[in-house]
């Protein structure tokens, strides 16, 4: 069949809208009509050539929602007509990682996914006879995409696609980092670095679990209003302080119980660790750093009890947890609508990247 998609032909070049060929689902795969997709900073990072796994040409996008159109042989958990969210972190429930109950990082198909291929080692997309790579196992910047059965979460049918898509990455990543990774307790003092599409979801997660102090840190002063809208209690612009760590340690009465990096900047990651309370403070890295970057701190910071950890997809087990997060949204426990600042047709998808780089959007959603 044919599908309309925004293709990343080259790094650092705008996406091009073209009609591609898409092969139908093979065994264990499903064909999904994508109805809406968010544009995450990770898509921009890959398009900018900063991803060590970046492949071109490819179809980016990993924050979608849509409808199952057709299933391949052997598929039992979803059927045509089901509403689904594609999962860049699948959940096979059978691999060593899934069975460990210690991680959400299913390893069943990670190797081929990182190469831009379906689990059988081939691509379903082609353009003028040339294979086009999948991205993060999702490729939601295409109107139709093929996904492994283990990489789709079935969600309720009354959830609007143009909001539910955000659960496919940003909402789950932010709220999940609080609930699943850090397991923040009521009354905790917390600092969130970077108040974008992820950081604001960390803030609303912190509010939901009853954190006491929720400090937001951003170099963009317009983010103060956004942070307060979702529960931030204090705002700090690093540009107003010589020693940001000393300021945050003083503000939080000796250091934070939990800090979250939602910037992807390795200097900020160090600040986030060092702003933690001696003896127990935990810092969660969510931001994705560009290829070649490394983090550093004095080992003494860890010797004296601070903990560094990371969180991918908010520690969520996709098929199990994302339908529940959609329920939280539908039940009014978390907000999504105000964070979707821009809704655009596919033809204008490059504007979503411009808005993000200009700091003018929280989330842009492309609707098909
Ligand atoms: P975004 O562009 O919407 O927001 C980033 C925010 O960080 C902006 O408000 C920006 O002003 C702020 N910022 C930039 N430099 C800063 C600095 N030095 N100090 C303080 N604030 C600073 O991006 P996003 O979509 O929210 O994504 C944030 C990060 O999370 C990205 O690195 C993205 O790749 C990553 N991410 C990780 C996961 C995961 O599973 N771990 C999932 C989604 C996104
Ligand atoms: N490909 C990069 C790593 C990118 C990365 O860390 N991705 C996050 C999700 S970001 C979503 O917006 C993630 O879940 N990683 C786990 C995984 O298995 O990829 C690199 O450095 O090579
Ligand atoms: Zn993302």
TrEMBL record:
InterPro entries for this protein: ADH-like_C (IPR013149), ADH-like_N (IPR013154), ADH_3 (IPR014183), ADH_Zn_CS (IPR002328), ER (IPR020843), GroES-like_sf (IPR011032), NAD(P)-bd_dom_sf (IPR036291)
Enzyme Commission numbers on file: 1.1.1.284
Alphabetic keyword roster: Metal-binding, NAD, Oxidoreductase, Zinc
Catalyzed reactions: S-nitrosoglutathione + NADH + H(+) = S-(hydroxysulfenamide)glutathione + NAD(+); a secondary alcohol + NAD(+) = a ketone + NADH + H(+); S-(hydroxymethyl)glutathione + NADP(+) = S-formylglutathione + NADPH + H(+); S-(hydroxymethyl)glutathione + NAD(+) = S-formylglutathione + NADH + H(+)
Cofactor dependency: Zn(2+)
Residue ranges occupied by any Enoyl reductase (ER) domain in the UniProt entry: 13-366
Family, similarity comment: Belongs to the zinc-containing alcohol dehydrogenase family. Class-III subfamily.
Name used for this protein in its record: S-(hydroxymethyl)glutathione dehydrogenase
Naturally occurring in which organism (per UniProt): Brevundimonas balnearis
